[in-house]
Design brief:
By secondary structure, the chain is an alpha/beta fold. It contains 9 helices and 16 strands. Strand 10, helix 6 and strand 11 form a beta-alpha-beta unit. Helix 1 packs across helix 4 and helix 8 runs parallel beside helix 9. It is globular, with a radius of gyration of 20 Å. It binds threonylcarbamoyladenylate (TXA) and magnesium ion (MG). The site of magnesium ion (MG) has 3 residues, from loops.
């Protein structure tokens, strides 16, 4: 398939109308959102959803998030809008928050991975919103990566994974956040966080009073608790390298990583290190020169860390890195989502130092 690639930094271009037509007619278009790039199809067309699964190589029991461009679009898609959902929408929409509702009959099970619920998000990105409007239908969109790979935060990541597999890619440059949306199930009382994201537990709890967490998110897969968001059970975001995370006091962690990294590098193995701005000095002058060390950003600004995380994993892949030694990050606020993604990327390979 020939994929049309359109580069733009505004929502005011003709190709967005063309992209909307493609989606309405059952085709696939990748587009930027404020979290990560999405791979869009009509949410009301079962066959279009099937194409999304095929393009990503994604298991078909893993439901898609349905994107809307205003709150009015929610009502026909759901059985009911609970009060807590209204509160969460008031506080965080448009934005990086997905809500799970009981689905109405117009949403095909092909979109929801066979579930009777539907996940809905109103993104805060002009291109995404203009595209949904142009399509005239809600857009089902998973992250626009091949299944198992890190989510795309740049147009070139989408091109790497999806060129030749879909009808169009809208390359809107770097996304703002770099982590997928927080998912909250509002079909249960109190509501429950199924996936951590930029809207933190504390923020969401502030809006609704009581808020639970799906315990599976806090456990390792071998503990056998089945996550309520089907996608959370898969190995995800995984770089090709053997990635391990070291947790503990910063200087001790750096010492440990330096020894391990130099040892591997000495054997001719391509090694990468993931750290933060504040810790770079701990490694200075202590690493063999062909070791690549990357700071994800400023520990006091976790949004900088979130933003570079998936890109860094992809860059290591492109460079043929075989081993990645990474630091752990604090798990408070957005840090919970950051460590959730990194832990999966590392296949739960976390070492206490
Ligand atoms: O930020 C985001 O949410 C991005 C952008 C493109 O909007 N999308 C995204 O989609 O991350 P995806 O497909 O990569 O992840 C969707 C997650 C999966 O873990 C899936 O199992 C869960 O949402 N999910 C979708 N529908 C669900 C439902 N009805 N009940 C429970 N979990 C659901
Ligand atoms: Mg994904």
């Amino acid at each position: 398939m020939n994929t049309k690639i359109v580069k733009t930094d505004t929502d005011n271009i003709e190709e967005i109308q063309e992209a909307g037509n493609i989606i309405r007619q059952g085709g696939l278009v990748a587009f930027p959102t404020e979290t990560v790039y999405g791979l869009g199809a009509s949410a009301l067309d079962e066959q279009a959803a099937a194409k999304v699964y095929a393009a990503k190589g994604r298991p078909s029991d893993n439901p898609l998030i349905v994107h809307v461009c205003n709150r009015k679009m929610v009502k026909p898609l759901v059985k009911a809008i609970p009060k807590v959902a209204e509160k969460l929408m008031d506080a965080f929409w448009p934005g990086p928050l997905t809500l799970v509702f009981e689905k109405s009959d117009i949403v095909p099970k092909g979109t929801t991975g066979g579930l009777n619920t539907v996940a809905i998000r109103y993104p805060n990105h002009p291109i995404a919103n203009r595209l949904i409007e142009a399509a005239g239908v809600p857009i089902a969109a998973p992250s626009a990566n091949l299944s198992g790979k890190p989510s795309p935060t740049l147009g070139e990541h989408v091109i790497d994974d999806m060129d030749g597999r879909i009808d169009m890619i809208i390359d809107g440059g770097m996304v703002g956040m770099g982590l997928e949306s927080t998912i909250i199930d509002v079909t249960v009382e109190p509501p429950m966080v199924l996936r951590p994201g930029f809207i933190t537990y504390e923020m969401a709890k502030g809006a609704v009073g009581q808020l639970n967490i799906d315990q599976a998110v806090l456990k390792k897969p071998e503990e056998g608790v089945k996550p309520k968001a089907p996608g959370m059970k898969y190995r995800h975001y995984a770089p090709a390298a053997d990635y391990s995370i070291y947790k503990g006091e910063a200087e001790q962690v750096a010492k440990k990583i330096i020894v391990l990294a130099n040892e591997k590098s000495n054997q001719g193995i391509k090694v990468g290190i993931i750290t933060a701005d504040q810790h770079l000095k701990l490694y200075e002058g202590k690493l063999y020169e062909n070791i690549k060390i990357v700071s994800l950003g400023d520990l006091d600004k976790p949004e900088t860390i979130a933003n570079k995380l998936f890109k860094t994993l992809r860059d290591f892949d492109k460079e043929g890195t075989q081993f990645i030694f990474g630091e752990a990050f604090a798990e408070d606020n957005v840090g919970w989502a950051i460590m959730n993604r990194l832990t999966k990327a590392a296949g739960y390979n976390i070492v206490d130092v």
